[in-house]
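chain and backbone:
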Amino acid sequence: MTSTLGDPRLVRGMAAQLNRRRECIKAGEKPLGWKVGFGAPAALEKLGIQAPLIGFLTDQALVASGSTISLAGWTKPVAEPEIAVHMGKDLRAGADRDTAKAAIAGLGPAIELADVDRPPDDVEQILAGNIYQRGVILGARNASRAGGVLDGLSGRILRNGTEFAQTTDPQALTGELIGIVRHVADVLAEWGEKLRAGQIIITGSVVPPLWVEAGEEVAFNLDPLGSVSIRFAAK
């Protein structure tokens, strides 16, 4: 089982973040799921952590694919093409790989929107700020990928209609997908939460994050599952 409780930075950061989540839900936002970040090997080493950081998503984060979002007031905006895991069953802490696979109802493409508005080397502040989360674009769930099957998946990222990056190994920068799902379930249990059926996990950027500017469009094609896109405006 992966743990946050041995690192005071993680303890303080998660406590602040989950208090913020409770306030959001009390204000009427509905839980959507979870996100992981800083899971690439270089990021783990830089931050001195053993596993990716975890943040939360609510329904207020949802942005429709193909829409335009204003960057007014953002500090350093970034777009991250990700695989979304759609949970079909609750998953308890300490679950084995087969149980975790059985809990996954399907996969789909996603783009996370983030704003790096605080130091990227301060683990406590990163967590307290919900890992820079500002929005998420979700594609349709593909049930043929129940169990977290990644065979044959490839990602192409288009910037203003031109291919900018691609990958045939969507786990290379994020870590192994089933391991991520188990890690989320383990950490949530430490904090009295549960990874529940109907929730999603966005599992980290499959290519290095894209720093974006107003006037740009980013599309993520997760072949053969589908695509999502987003445009950016100054205001």
